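TICKET: design request
STATUS: open
ATTACHED STRUCTURE:
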């Protein structure tokens, strides 16, 4: 009988530890890095955002230049659970820009490098 109680207790402890680890990785609050996906557009002249909405409010997208000046600000109030939006950097000066997404108080940022190659203006995304 004691062996059965010990085995059951160990099983329950293992089950609780596994459930806690799962909740920490999958059931906790949405982290900013998981709510926004940044990708370059196919012709590499802009950035595509996929924003998984958090809460009821609008998501705000702000693009600033290297000096911190706001070059574009937009409020996305679509009711879809995922917002998809493209931003074209054609005609922007070469340099680094920061895209910031405020999704109900959760912030995601990505640096975009705009440059000219031999054929056309291009963008590249930098790891944060």
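STATUS: resolved
RESOLUTION: sequence designed for all positions
ATTACHED SEQUENCE:
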């Amino acid at each position: 009988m004691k062996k059965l109680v010990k085995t059951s207790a160990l099983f329950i402890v293992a089950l609780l530890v596994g459930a806690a680890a799962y909740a920490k990785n999958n059931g906790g609050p949405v982290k900013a890095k998981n709510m926004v996906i940044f990708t370059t557009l196919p012709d590499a002249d802009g950035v595509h955002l996929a924003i998984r909405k958090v809460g009821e409010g609008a998501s705000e997208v702000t693009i600033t230049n290297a000096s911190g000046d706001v070059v574009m600000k937009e409020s996305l109030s679509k009711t879809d659970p995922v917002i998809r939006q493209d931003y074209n950097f054609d005609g922007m000066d070469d340099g680094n820009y920061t895209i910031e997404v405020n999704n109900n108080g959760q912030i995601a940022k990505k640096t975009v490098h705009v440059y000219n190659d031999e054929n056309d203006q291009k963008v590249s995304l930098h790891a944060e």
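CLOSING REMARK: Confidence is low (pLDDT under 50) at residues 13-33. The first strand starts at residue 36 and ends at 40.
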